[in-house]
Amino acid sequence: MNFLTLVMAVPLQRPLGQDGHDQRPHGKHLLGQDGHDQQPHKQKPHKHNKHKAKKVLGGDSHDRRAHKKLFGQGNHDYKKHGKVLGGDDHDIGHMGMFKSFMKQHNKSYKNKAEFKRRFKIFHQNMKKVHILQQNERGTAKYGATKFADLSEHEFRKMLGFQPHMKPATSSMEPAVIPEDLEAPVSFDWRQHGVVTPVKNQGMCGSCWAFSTTGNVEGQWAIKHKQLYSLSEQELVDCDATDDGCNGGLPENAYEAISKLGGLELEDDYPYDGEDEQCHFNRSLAKVTVNGSVELPANEVAMAKWLTKNGPISIGINANALQFYVGGVSHPLKFLCNPESLDHGMLIVGYGVHTTKYLHRKQPFWIVKNSWGEDWGEQGYYRVYRGDGTCGVDQMATSAIVP
Ligand SMILES: *[C@@H]1O[C@H](CO)[C@@H](O)[C@H](O)[C@H]1NC(C)=O
Ligand SMILES: *[C@@H]1O[C@H](CO)[C@@H](O)[C@H](O)[C@H]1NC(C)=O
Ligand SMILES: *[C@@H]1O[C@H](CO)[C@@H](O)[C@H](O)[C@H]1NC(C)=O
């Protein structure tokens, strides 16, 4: 069973708009038409704060502590959350959440119909959040991120990793793993000045291009002691093997860079997030690539290679990402199939988290995403390391730069 079927299998006890019954009371009291909803909230700030900050969005340390204490210790925590996050008969909570979500992310909708449509999507999404949270084995929090009003279809547009584009005969060489190297307990290439700030791919399936530039930026910086921010748009426009905003693969992109004659800087070939005519100017290319390597699906080997050689381009299953707020993400396999990779990212480091109360060790990868700094942990994702979670080890590659 995949994530979507599971989510859809949760019955809506009172589907919105089916008989109008649900709508009417909402329309009158909750949509803010007459300010009725606002007043009680303003008059009872204590109650409002409790729901918004402590129980729902996980926005303060109180919520985090409660979670750590209660993780895996029965249903008590989930029941509490169920009331607010996933309860079918608690539309009031979702509407309150939806309004604070709109405020927090500065969302506005062009008319009432759009508002209703978005609320319906949000409502469904909070059920997915509940399922992810209920089955989480790490410390991750899932919630109303800036993507919480996007449908599954819209969210998929922001991915773009296409494993089926893998060529029949790969030009990649197997990576040489420094087996004798004693990898440190933790390592972070961001502390070595070889990682550019988090970028934003927008509503274009160009993750593959960002994963590629991130890797090449690191390779170049380590080898030449010069960190450049490189152009994804050049790859979107000029890499004919891949498919621009419809997706691609770093493996193809490394070769495309070689064939094109290099990559221009972000500033010289800026990102527009749309498929455009290629206007690559070879004399502006600042870096080149002259080969690529494929890492084994072995996270111990990956860590060794990373500490010696630099950040690693990966493909991953994005099921846990739309609602990821922070923490070490460790979803169950059936919620994040490791064989179905759909998003490209960049591993820049790793570490081990120790839980506060039970002192459980949670090894993680530090993964750079391309959805802006206002997603995840300042644009980064921490995913469990050691058991192939979400397929993190399935398509690990790197360019070789001359
Ligand atoms: C909020 O959104 C409005 C309308 O989209 C925009 O004009 C405004 O600049 C935004 N404000 C912030 C702080 O992002
Ligand atoms: C390519 O870049 C060079 C250096 O900036 C410039 O002189 C040349 O006109 C550019 N060529 C085109 C076709 O834009
Ligand atoms: C890539 O560049 C390096 C360094 O210049 C060189 O040693 C190597 O032979 C090159 N490989 C290919 C395939 O051109």
TrEMBL record:
InterPro entries assigned to the protein according to its UniProt record, in alphabetical order: Papain-like_cys_pep_sf (IPR038765), Pept_asp_AS (IPR025661), Pept_cys_AS (IPR000169), Pept_his_AS (IPR025660), Peptidase_C1A (IPR013128), Peptidase_C1A_C (IPR000668), Peptidase_C1A_papain-like (IPR039417), Prot_inhib_I29 (IPR013201)
Domain spans labelled Cathepsin propeptide inhibitor: 98-155
Keyword list, A-Z: Disulfide bond, Glycoprotein, Hydrolase, Protease, Signal, Thiol protease, Zymogen
Ranges of biased composition (kind: Basic residues): 41-55
Any GO molecular function: cysteine-type peptidase activity
CDD domains: Peptidase_C1A (cd02248)
UniProt entry tagged with the keyword ATP-binding: no
Biological processes, Gene Ontology terms: proteolysis
Transmembrane segments: none
Annotated stretches, region: Disordered: 15-63
Residues annotated as domain Peptidase C1A papain C-terminal: 183-400
Family in the record: Belongs to the peptidase C1 family.
PANTHER family named among the record's database cross-references: CYSTEINE PROTEASE FAMILY C1-RELATED (PTHR12411)
Protein name: Uncharacterized protein
The species this protein was found in: Scylla paramamosain (Mud crab)
